[in-house]
Design goal:
about 160 residues, 3 helices
């Protein structure tokens, strides 16, 4: 299982490359990403750049989240693009690549996302609430953006307290 890179690792600031080849190696990478996300504390999403892979790949699974929300279960997305966004909500975010920190980040409340599934077939979904937030957070990783770049102010960034 790959290790999660943490800020300030330069790989986290790179813009990811489009996935063009949907082969067995890609399937293996999706599987590794999913296992790495599940092993992380409270992980509901992960992007390939977080493990040093510079391809536009994300895995989302909000189904086990403590935040109840309508969701699509496990999503394996290559080349995701937000095609529309509506409303805005402020919400608390954390990140496996920025451990021990959380912050208040504005995100669209509802989004439409076009992506290629793990077999290269184009899909389109509508996501709302927490799932929409997670998808936007992970797509940011593909563009070298961390949630700390979107925090409203330094006062909105807080160190996580451990029990």
């Amino acid at each position: 299982m790959p290790s999660i890179l943490t800020h300030p690792d330069a790989h986290l600031r790179r813009i990811s490359d489009v996935v063009a080849l949907f082969d067995a190696a890609l399937q293996h990478t999706f599987s590794d990403l999913q296992q790495t996300m599940q092993a992380g504390p409270g992980g509901v999403g992960i992007a390939a750049p977080q493990v040093g892979d510079n391809r536009r790949m994300i895995v989302i699974d909000c189904s086990a989240s403590l935040r109840p929300c309508k969701n699509h279960g496990v999503l394996l997305m290559a080349n995701p693009v937000i095609t529309s966004a509506n409303g805005e909500r402020l919400g608390r975010e954390g990140c496996l690549s920025v451990p021990d920190w959380v912050g208040m980040v504005p995100r669209a409340a509802e989004i439409s996302v076009r992506f290629d599934d793990r077999f290269g077939q184009t899909q389109q979904i509508e996501a709302v609430g927490f799932e929409a937030r997670v998808i936007q957070h992970e797509i940011d990783h593909l563009d070298g953006i961390l949630f700390i770049d979107r925090v409203l102010s330094s006062k909105a960034l807080m160190r996580r307290l451990h029990a």
